[in-house]
Amino acid sequence: MQPFLDDMNEFIGAINDVIWADWVLYVVLGVGVLFTLWSGFCQYRALVHGTAVTAGKYDDKDDPGAINHFQALSAALSATVGLGNIGGVAVAIALGGPGAVFWMWVVGLAGMALKTTSVTLSMIYRDVSDPDNPKGGPMYVAKRAFADWGLAPLGMIVGVIFCITLLISAITGGNMFQAWNVGIQTEEALGIPAIGVGIILAIVVGAVIIGGIKRIGHVAGILVPFMCVLYLLAGSIVLLMNIDTIPSIIGLIIKSAFNPTDAAGAFIGGTAGYAFLWGMKRALFSSEAGQGSSPIAHSAAKTKEPVREAVVAGLEPFIDTIIVCTLTALVILSTGAWDRGATGEATLASTPDVTQSDEGWNIGTFGDADSSDDEDSKTWYVPLPGKNKAAKETTGKDWGAGDKVFMIAETDQLDDDTGSMRVRVYGEVDELESGGFVAVFEPGVITSDARPAFVDNEMYKDYPGATLTAHAFDRAIPGLGTWLILIASWLFAISTMISWSYYGEQGMVFMLGKGSVLPYKVFYCLMIIVSTLPIITSDKELDNLTALGTGVMLWANIPIMLVFGGIAMKAYHDYGRRLRSGDFHSHKARSFTDMTEE
Q1: Which of 539, 546, 541 is CA-nearest to residue 266?
Q2: What is the per-residue pLDDT for 369?
Q3: Coil, helix or strand for 177?
Q4: Which has the minimum average pLDDT: 10-14, 190-194, 563-567?
Q5: How many other β-carbons are positioned within 10 Å of the β-carbon of residue 597?
Q6: Which one, of 265, 545, 274, lies nearest residue 415 by Cα?
Q7: Among candidates 293, 292, 310, 291, which has minimal Cα distance to 124?
Q8: 3-state DSSP call for residue 453?
């Protein structure tokens, strides 16, 4: 099974190398800047007028649509404010360093223009033949806009291509990424097997998505504000505890965005280009800017004015990236979780043996730590002392069988991405029958011409994805991260999965009609369970999966935006002119209860 998974990861990685080439990131960022300038900085209107629209000041119950502006924003945010804000940010910092955060900010601001443009187009071309259940999204933009140019067959082809990429993203980033993070986080915190978590998630998500967009909008309208306030409150407490470090961290973020970040503790180093790559990738995944997914939710909003809903959509990247992602990043950086050194989990009493073989350099001693005569049980292992006192107090427990660990080795090969000769060497903790623990390593885990040397003899526990964020909270208040991130992970993941299920459903309806919805929902829920099986084991494998889904959607949606962007901008400026002229009359903001229960 493992060779197949390795081949699959290598295949997906090869695809990602193409769809995430550096020039693709520059194009996406450039398109965001283009529409920022073309719209006259629509970010300002989103923050001012978009907030008023969301508060219900322009709501009209007689307008076509299924849900109000607040519910549409909540449904779209429930897809964006998810594990990408907790686990995705952690991946970006763990691999790209603090500089990745700066580029997340840049994408967040540019993403506001991308969202505004994309939603404007989707609202203009949405299908309101059933006023109580309108349908929209880039697939309908392609279908109807190309038809207006006499190119209906081309429009259908482009629409189907978008839907295929939409389904890939729904299954990977919108589903499997979420379930995997919740699985490992719950298993880490409570010892519940990840597969059991997957089954529970599948049942809960299935129960919600049966009700369609109205139930999704209702659930999201309650769940999203609650989970955001809970997470922001806890994060603010941690930042107040480390308030004296915040100015230097902001400086580090800006400096690292343009200069290499040196290796320190658990961080093996990163170039400015690597920070740019990870900041862009994780911000695009988290905010979905340029993907064309959230216009599907916004197309269900009650309004006669396409741009009115578009300015509401412009708020999404600001809330998701500038606020929530930034909070996560500052917690990870201010607590030192990203480059933990002296507070690493354990310091070895002596340097492990290193032996060269045909496969590479082997770490540890070959044999069986329990002195078994079974030849198959022999492997490379390193005896583990107990965790350092500080590490044990933070987590409340010592090593456990199955814990993922790593050491850092200095090799003679420079990594172009990290700008470092250091590599992480991963192993797994095993508990001995005779008592105590060992770290077990696969043969030939280090590639180097010269004999590698280990840095400081530190053994680190690996915290992939959301578990690094949880560890950061725990370092501030022992136990806080375990429970906060556990609860937040469940809430964020469920909200994201239910919205992405709807996105994928609309893609199926566009391609195959309503008869395809039930089989799709069953498959979607089954993939939740599959993702909690032991098939994803590290940050890089996780990124492989989510990068595929995000990347293919960008390739499908950005061309649609560029081809028809002029139509969106014309509508946007016309709406702005009418707004300034006083053509629209607002009324008193609606209560939270009214907006969520409608």
Answers
A1: 539
A2: 66
A3: helix
A4: 10-14
A5: 11
A6: 274
A7: 310
A8: strand
Residue 343 reports pLDDT greater than 60: no
b (16+ CB within 10 A) / e for 295-317: bbbbbbbbbebbbbbbbbbbbbb
Give bridge partners of residue 427 from the DSSP assignment: 405
Q: Give kind and range of the element (H or E) at residue 425.
A: strand 420-431
Half-sphere exposure of 65 (CA within 13 A, CB side): 26
Structure tokens at 80: 């964006």
Asked if CATH classification 1.20.1740 holds for the domain at 12-337+474-580, the reply, yes or no, is yes
How far from 15 is each of 39, 102, 547, CA to CA, in Å? 34, 27, 10
Q: Please tell me the distance from the alpha carbon of residue 137 to that of residue 132, in angstroms, as a whole number.
A: 16
Phi, psi dihedrals of residue 66, rounded to the nearest 5°: -105, -25
User: Is residue 578's pLDDT more than 90?
Assistant: yes
| Tokens, residue 303 | 């309004």
DSSP secondary structure letters along 539-592: HHHHHHHHHHHHHHHHHHHHHHHHHHHHHHHHHHHHHHHHHHTT-S---PPPPH
Choose among 432, 461, 433: nearest CA to 343: 461
Output b/e per residue, 416-453; b: 16+ Cβ within 10 A: eebbbbbbbbbbbbbebeeeebbbbbeebbbebeeebe
- Taking the C-alpha atoms of residue 50 and residue 58, their distance in angstroms, rounded to an integer, is 10
Q: What is the mean pLDDT of residues 472-487?
A: 87
User: How crowded is the C-beta side of 1, counted as CA atoms within 13 Å?
Assistant: 4
Exposed e or buried b for every residue in 227-241, given b needs 16+ CB within 10 A? bbeebeebbeebbee
Tallying the residues shown for the chain, one arrives at: 598
Own/partner pairs, 126-133, CB within 8 angstroms, 24+ separation: 126/299, 128/64, 131/64, 131/65, 132/64, 132/65, 132/66, 133/66, 133/213, 133/300
Best CA proximity match to 176, nearest among 285, 317, 251: 285
- 51 burial type by CB count under 10 A (0-12 exposed, 13-18 middle, 19+ buried): middle
Quote the DSSP letter at residue 379: E
**What's the token pair of residue 355?**
């032996």
Residue 246 in contact with residue 329, Cβ under 8 Å?
no
CB 307 within 8 A of CB 124: no
Query: Which two tokens mark 467?
Result: 């578990």
Under a CB-based contact definition with an 8 Å cutoff, are residues 32 and 289 in contact?
yes
Say what the pLDDT of residue 177 is: 81
Residue at 468: amino acid letter? L
Measuring CA to CA, which residue among 468, 466, 458, 529 is closest to residue 497? 529
For 406-442, how does the pLDDT look when each residue is reduced to its tens digit (9 = 90+)? 999 999 988 878 888 999 999 999 888 878 889 999 8
Domains of the chain: which residue ranges? 12-337+474-580, 346-462
CB 429, CB 403: distance < 8 Å: yes
Q: Is 292 left (phi over 0), alpha (psi -120 to 50) or beta?
A: left
pLDDT confidence of residue 374: 47
Could you tell me how many helices (H) and strands (E) the chain has, helices first?
24, 10
What CA–CA distance (Å, rounded) separates 38 from 252? 33
* DSSP character at residue 422: E
pTM (two decimals): 0.85
